[in-house]
Specification:
seven-stranded mixed beta sheet; alpha/beta; Arc Repressor Mutant, subunit A; about 15% strand; about 350 residues; three-stranded antiparallel beta sheet; Rossmann fold; single chain
Length: about 350
């Protein structure tokens, strides 16, 4: 990178919030949608403004800036949708990530420096009066609540179909779903196997919502609930499970807390029990953009979620497994949306 290129990059960072909010405005005001509905060479400004229901002035300032970002393209007085704009408008992952950033993280990130200094989620106060975000998930205001669950489910749900055959490649009578959230994985297991019974472990407020959704879906007979705050070393996991499942769960804890939770899981594992851990590791991604997104997500954990967790590098995570007395028997990369699945057993 030349000095001029580096300075240009620095300028882009200085105005980065403008880029993000301009992209959101072009999307949410319907300007990108209007441009996406017409063929090139596109629309003149007056017609575009009329179709979008926005003043020519408002549209013009967004177009001028959006052209720098590749969101729109202007030529001879007409405007068309740019390639970046196409994906910002139509790509599901981009939309979910953008909503999550806008509704959960944007206001909070101004407190990132304080969060790093104190080890506390200093930006969480922009959403509610909780010690960690997980305590307030069910009472988040809209649209933040929907944006958080859409973000979480987008990544977790794509793992399920790939991993069900691996988990149930042998009989499973009892499955312990640790960090069960709203019960989406539990429902998949119940639908997949008529023999499995699932015990969900989570905070009481999360289990209340999960129980409501399970009841609505008609799954009550083969589901049990075990309320636990696993931040407390006194919290214990139920014994007797054939499979212990932790998906996108351990990244919600600090390194020391992860070791503590895994040791407690190890204590209740019988002779043939299997522990499945599913995580997103930045250093196991096929694309730079994926690693970039995961490292950005670490800042969400730092500033909003809890102040002390992150998306871990695989080598660091492997050391935590070793410290907990576990070994990786088998692993699968590229599951779902860049997930790694680990099948672990006590050493």
């Amino acid at each position: 990178m030349s000095a001029i290129e580096a300075k240009s990059q620095a300028q882009a960072l200085a105005f980065a919030p403008f880029s993000f909010q301009a992209a959101m405005a072009l999307r949410d005001l319907g300007i990108l949608e209007v441009l996406g509905s017409v063929r090139r060479p596109g629309l003149p400004l007056p017609e575009l403004a009329e179709r979008a229901g926005v003043s020519e002035y408002g549209v013009s300032v967004l177009l001028d800036f959006g052209e720098h970002l590749g969101l729109v393209e202007g030529e001879e007085g007409r405007w068309a949708l740019g390639k970046v704009g196409y994906f910002f408008l139509h790509d599901e992952m981009t939309r979910v990530n953008a909503d999550f950033t806008h509704d959960i993280c944007y206001d909070a990130l101004r407190y990132l420096t304080r969060a790093v200094r104190t080890g506390q989620p200093a930006g969480l106060s922009s959403l509610g009066p909780w010690d960690t975000l997980y305590q307030g998930l069910s009472s988040l205001p809209e649209p933040a609540r929907s944006s958080w669950f859409n973000f979480d489910h987008l990544y977790s749900d794509r793992v399920f179909s790939d991993l069900l055959p691996l988990v149930f490649d042998r009989p499973v009578q009892q499955l312990l779903d640790v960090g069960g959230n709203t019960g989406r994985w539990a429902r998949c297991c119940l639908e997949y196997s008529p023999d499995v019974h699932v015990t969900m472990v989570d905070l009481p407020v999360q289990l209340e919502r999960a129980a409501e959704e399970m009841k609505a879906a008609g799954w009550t007979e083969r589901v049990e609930y075990h309320a636990a705050d696993l931040l407390s070393d006194q919290s214990r996991l139920p014994a007797g499970a054939d499979v212990i499942w932790m998906s996108q769960f351990l990244d919600c804890f600090s390194a020391d807390q992860i070791v503590s939770i895994l040791r407690r899981a190890r204590q209740v594992m019988g002779g043939e029990a299997r522990l499945f851990i599913i995580e997103l590791f930045p250093d196991r991604q096929a694309f730079d953009a994926a690693a970039f997104s995961l490292d950005a997500t670490s800042l969400y954990f730092t500033c909003v979620a809890n102040g002390n967790s992150r998306m871990y590098r695989y080598a660091e995570f492997a050391r935590l497994l070793e410290a907990a007395g576990l070994e990786v028997v088998q692993e699968w990369d590229g599951v779902g949306v860049g997930h790694t699945a680990l099948y672990c057993r006590p050493v």
